[in-house]
TrEMBL record:
Protein name per the record: Quinohemoprotein alcohol dehydrogenase ADH IIB
NCBIfam families reported in the protein's UniProt record: PQQ_enz_alc_DH
Binding positions for heme c per the UniProt entry: C624, C627, H628, M667
UniProt keyword annotations, A-Z: Calcium, Disulfide bond, Heme, Iron, Metal-binding, Oxidoreductase, PQQ, Signal
Similarity comment text for this entry: Belongs to the bacterial PQQ dehydrogenase family.
Residues involved in Ca(2+) binding: E199, N275, D320
UniProt-listed InterPro entries: Cyt_c-like_dom (IPR009056), Cyt_c-like_dom_sf (IPR036909), PQQ_b-propeller_rpt (IPR018391), PQQ_MeOH/EtOH_DH (IPR017512), PQQ_rpt_dom (IPR002372), Quinoprotein_ADH-like_sf (IPR011047), Quinoprotein_DH_CS (IPR001479)
Active site residues of this protein: D320 (proton acceptor)
Intrachain S-S bonds: C131-C132
Superkingdom in the source lineage: Bacteria
GO cellular component: membrane; outer membrane-bounded periplasmic space
Residues annotated as domain Cytochrome c: 611-690
Signal peptide positions on this chain: 1-27
Length: 702
């Protein structure tokens, strides 16, 4: 495979981006691979199917020869539609799924009949502390208990039969902007959970709780705290040697907000660790340093939390290059030797194959175009960086990947039959530049990067260039040869997680509002189903009474959908969120979408001066953009402020933004960080944006 590295692009506008496609090659033989911890999964009782997190089902009733007969068996309306990212679990004929605001539903897996629902009644003002939507990625199951986390930092155990609360513990300091969006994992009678919040200035950690009592057993911090307070472990003392300055005042980051895997034979728990806080290392750790254990895979003993080894994918990370992306355990035949490996395609654009016993790097190649490093040095395991990419204190740098990564949270899958890893890959460039006005605020957005540099351009020529540069694909990757086997381009980015099956199929939902089945060996598109809304969650498969089922939760949302709100799924609707279940011979259909009439009242005239509007834009970009969208263009998941009746009078918008009138609906009060003059400027900018008409250009998904 040709190296996809391209020299650093010297310009401060995204229009300069050059994107290059990955070439295809012949698929590898399945005889080169062996599965780790697969078994006969007739249920789907663990987040990734098994502890190995392969997301491969050995069920093979559904095949390329009969996939055309796959139909909708039943669908359940989740009652919400915003950012449904859940992996359902199936245990003893019951399917468990989560939705927005951490609501849990238990249904008969064969008929869809509701058994019970549980609403943890989370504090919706915590939406202000969510970088990436009010999402949840699922529950864990063990010994008759459903374990789930909440965005306000709690971990709960529910009776799997009734939904009754068995225990409810707080896992974070709720006075700080911690959140939980990931699914817990169960290992040796313990529920393991991390947290999020690095963009807001917290110190990351993950913890183990006794599944019977909810008592904390151990905690592993992922970055060191203030040395004056002492270190919690030798691992933290060692990590502190790689930091400079007074990093603890900024939190440090390193939140373990998603991926885990477990090897029972080695008794090792693997945790993916996130980005630094702030992103900008020049602020966080002036003078550099590797900043352990940011952007690392960390292996610990699950009974004690004792550190065993780590591998850092991005030393001294400064780009939001998390290593929290999905990790997969497998056994690969490498150079004639069977190796126990852990595989990951983190945000930084390189695919890693690592010995999971020792943490030794076996190989790494870029799976998407990158221009921040030329390659990974095989001897040191470190990336060979391009000097211009270290943007802190330097000129802006147009980079691939950007903070959305070459692969985000959407799970990939490994098939031991084909020997391929199936990746929901992305190409999303971004301009990194210093935030000249940075001032740390422990309740606000703290990246140290100028967010305005990542805004979509308003000029049509520039916009078309960006539209061409932002891409998504289903990439089948050979982890032994470290090259693509095949690749299917999507119409847009931010597509769903992956399921592969022994029936020779790969299933993926997409931003184009379809669930699609492909041939696992060559990527041929065989079947699709219109879901009426974008799918970001991964499918699963299970068997009941000799019939194989495919299940997936639909509901558009997440970081990309909120931030670039106008880039909607083609032909879809953001108002429907469902659990959909399919089987051969079923003939079910979804109800027709209702006809919607968009209410777009004429916004007030723009009378403010340029200085006031500019101040309002700065406030908006710092406080509002991550939910209400770039250029104030909403996805529809949250209100589109350009058409809000609150714009009519200054007093009206102040009752919401300062007075907290809509806190119960997820719109928090900003009275602690904004004042009435700020709201006047904010209103002026929103009114100005309402007259721009940029929404006519926002059709990347179409």
């Amino acid at each position: 495979m040709n190296n996809i590295y391209r020299p650093a692009i010297r310009c401060a506008s995204l229009v300069c981006a050059s994107i290059f496609l990955i070439a295809c090659s012949k698929a590898p033989s399945g005889s080169d691979m062996a599965a780790a911890d697969v078994g006969v999964v007739k249920e789907w009782s663990k987040h990734g199917g098994t502890d190995a997190e392969q997301r491969f089902s050995p069920l093979k009733q559904i095949t390329p020869s009969n996939i055309e007969n796959l139909g909708l068996a039943w669908a359940f309306d989740l009652g919400v539609s915003r950012g449904i990212e859940s992996t359902p679990l199936v245990v003893d004929g019951v399917i468990y799924v989560t939705a927005t605001w951490n609501k849990v539903s238990a249904l008969d897996a064969k008929t869809g009949e509701l058994r019970w629902q549980y609403d943890p009644k989370v504090d919706r003002s915590k939406a202000a502390d969510l970088c990436c939507d009010a999402v949840n990625r699922g529950v864990a199951y063990s010994d008759g208990k459903i374990i789930t986390g909440t965005i306000d930092g709690r971990l709960l155990a529910l009776d799997a039969d009734t939904g009754k609360v068995l225990w409810d513990v707080v896992t974070v300091d709720q006075s700080k902007p911690y959140t939980i969006t990931g699914a817990p994992r169960i290992v040796n009678g313990k529920a393991i959970i991390g947290n999020g919040g690095a963009e807001y200035g917290v110190r990351g950690y993950f913890s183990a709780y006794d599944i019977n009592t909810g008592e904390m057993v151990w905690r592993f911090y992922t970055v060191p705290g203030n040395p004056a307070d002492g270190f919690e472990s030798p691992a933290m003392a060692k990590a502190a040697e790689t930091w400079k300055g007074e990093w603890w005042k900024y939190g440090g980051g390193g939140t373990a907000w998603d991926s885990m895997a477990y090897d029972a034979e080695l008794d090792l728990l693997y945790i993916g660790v996130g980005n630094g806080s702030p992103w900008n290392q020049n602020i966080r750790s002036p003078g550099g340093g590797d900043n352990l254990y940011l952007s690392s895979i960390v292996a610990v003993r699950p009974d004690t939390g004792e550190y065993v080894w780590h591998y850092q994918t991005t030393p001294g990370e400064t780009w939001d290059y998390t290593a929290t992306q999905h990790m997969i355990l497998a056994e690969l035949d490498i150079a004639g030797e069977t190796r126990k490996v852990i595989m990951q395609a983190p945000k930084n654009g390189f695919f890693y194959v690592i010995d999971r016993e020792t943490g030794e790097l076996l190989s790494a190649k870029n799976y998407v175009p990158v221009n921040w490093a030329t390659h990974i040095d095989q001897e040191t395991g470190r990336p060979v960086e391009i000097p211009e990419a270290r943007w802190g204190g330097k000129a802006p740098h147009l980079q691939l990947p950007g903070p959305l990564g070459g692969h985000n949270w959407h799970p990939m899958s490994f098939s031991p039959d084909t020997g391929l890893v199936y990746i929901p890959a992305m190409e999303t460039p971004f301009v990194y530049a210093d935030d000249k006005n940075f001032s740390f605020n422990d309740s606000g957005w703290n990246t140290g990067a100028d967010g305005a540099m990542g805004s979509l351009p308003t000029g049509m020529a520039q916009f078309k260039a960006i539209k061409a540069a932002i891409k998504g694909s289903l990439l089948a990757w050979d982890p032994v040869k470290q090259q693509p086997a095949w690749e299917i381009p999507h119409k847009g980015t931010w597509n769903g997680g992956i399921l592969s099956t022994a029936g020779g199929l790969v299933f993926q939902g997409n931003a184009d509002a379809k669930l699609v089945a492909y041939r696992a060996d060559n990527g041929e598109r065989l079947w699709d189903f219109f879901a009426q809304t974008g799918i970001v969650a991964p499918p699963i498969s299970y068997e009941i009474d000799g019939e194989q089922y495919i299940a997936v939760a639909s509901g558009w949302g997440g970081t990309f959908a909120l931030l670039y709100g106008g880039l909607l799924p083609a032909d879809g609707d953001v108002g429907v969120g469902r659990l959909m279940v399919f089987k051969l011979g079923a003939k079910g259909a979804l109800p027709e979408l209702p006809t919607k009439v968009l209410a777009r009242p004429e916004p007030p005239e723009s009378t403010a001066d340029a200085e006031t509007i500019a101040k309002g834009k700065q406030i908006y970009d710092n406080r509002c953009v991550v939910c209400h969208g770039d250029h104030v263009i909403s996805s529809g998941l949250v209100p589109d402020l350009r058409w809000s009746p609150l714009l009519i009078a200054e007093e009206a918008i102040q009752t919401v933004v300062l007075g907290g009138a809509l806190t119960s609906q997820g719109m928090p009060s900003f009275s602690e960080v904004l004042n009435e003059d700020d709201i006047k400027s904010l209103r002026a900018y929103i009114i100005s944006a309402a007259h721009e008409g940029l929404e006519e250009k926002l059709d990347i998904g179409k």
